[in-house]
Structure formats: C-alpha cells, structure tokens
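Structure tokens please, single chain.
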Amino acid sequence: MFIVHVHVHVKPEAVADFRLSTTENARASLREPGIARFDVVQQEDDATRFVLVEVYRTTEAAASHKETAHYAKWRDAVATMMAEPRFSVKYSAVFPDVQGWQKHEL
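Here you go.
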C-alpha cells in the first residue's frame, strides 16, 4: 500500500468551497479500483488546514489518479483557494496489511 498525505492550507474565505470540491473529488476517487481509501480531514483548531489521506494499492494507481478527469477538475477548481502551495508526504503501510484495508462504498 502506498499512502500519501496531502497538506493543504486554504484561504479563510474559500473553506466552504474547498470542502465541497474536495468531497466531490474524494467520492469520485473512491470509484477508482486502485484506491483503497480517500479521506478528507480538517484541522480542529484551524479550519483553513486540511489533510487528504490517500491510500493507493500501488504507486502506479497514484499516478493513474492524477490522470483522471475528476482530479483535473478538482486541481483547477481549488488552485485559487490555496493560501500557500499544497505539499505531500509519502508513506508505506505497516499495519494493517493489504487484506486489512477496506474500500469505502459511498
């Protein structure tokens, strides 16, 4: 499993629109066979900060995700909402093992 945490700092006036666009992208992403999870979390003490927790079955699935129409739509929609450039940190799963990851059905 290949896990990516995407850290996003959004302009205060764009929080609601960012949540809407990002949730739409997350729902579409979960339909991709190479994605096991796609979580969107918002920081409790600073509502302008988010982390997208993307769990891919392979590194190739992560690359394929960036070629989808819904990702391109999201990327373009939120570009002007960013207070600063987003950044990602990549991880490898330790626990659970591959069988322990469940795909969301939304």
